[in-house]
Amino acid sequence: MINLIIFGPPGSGKGTQAQKIVELFDLTHISTGDLFRYEIGNDTPLGMKAKEYMNKGELVPDEVTIGMLENRLNQSNNPNGYIFDGVPRTIAQAEAVNQIMTDRGTEITHLIALDVPDDEIVKRLLERGKTSNRPDDQSEEIIRRRIVEYNAKTSPVFNFYAESGLSNKIDGVGSLDEIFARIKDCLES
Ligand code: AMP
């Protein structure tokens, strides 16, 4: 079983690579950003709450995120495993994810971080914003806020899993196939 956290700043290519990994290993892809956007699209109370934070480039509170993640996992039982995309984003979320996995009789097996410089991220997200319809991709100020949130709250999650020897960092700049090959090497080694 592979339970992989695909990790890295916004715009590092997590979602794109997650889709390729899912196909190869037949995993279930769980993206909390996508789950929040689904709730927003359906005008649910959870979506309305998440939107307040997302549109400012801030993290949605942990209890909201963890509750939603638990619900999603309760609807699914894939013996091949899961890819967690955009979660955990805080140490509290990492602790909650570990507990949820333990309760399911399993554990996180890998964290792979995509390393991409800040200026490249801003460039990629502004480009994506032309077609993504995502309010948080539209302004450089909000993108920079997301990077600040990542550095302050999310990047420590790398060290949290490094303590158990699960964290790997790979170069996230290159063609999609080059980056995918680096991820495969990590998963197969
Ligand atoms: P993403 O699609 O992963 O770039 O996430 C878009 C936005 O959704 C983030 O900037 C946050 O506002 C929110 N979000 C997604 N996942 C999480 C999470 N695990 N914890 C808190 N906020 C999240």
Give descriptors for this structure.
single chain, 189 residues, alpha/beta, Rossmann fold, binds adenosine monophosphate
Tell me what you see in this structure.
This protein has 189 residues and is an alpha/beta fold. The protein has one domain: P-loop containing nucleotide triphosphate hydrolases (Rossmann fold, 3-Layer(aba) Sandwich), CATH 3.40.50.300. 57% of the residues lie in helices and 14% in strands. It is built from 9 helices and 5 strands; from the N terminus they run E-H-E-H-H-H-E-H-E-H-H-H-E-H. The chain has helices at residues 14-25, 32-41, 45-54, 62-74, 91-103, 118-132, 140-154, 156-162, 176-188, and strands at residues 2-7, 28-31, 81-85, 110-115, 167-171. A 5-stranded parallel sheet has the order 2-3-1-4-5. It is globular, with a radius of gyration of 16 Å. The model has no long low-confidence stretch (mean pLDDT 97). Bound molecules: adenosine monophosphate. Adenosine monophosphate binds at residues 10, 32-33, 36, 53-54, 57-60, 65, 86-87, 89, 93, 136, 146.
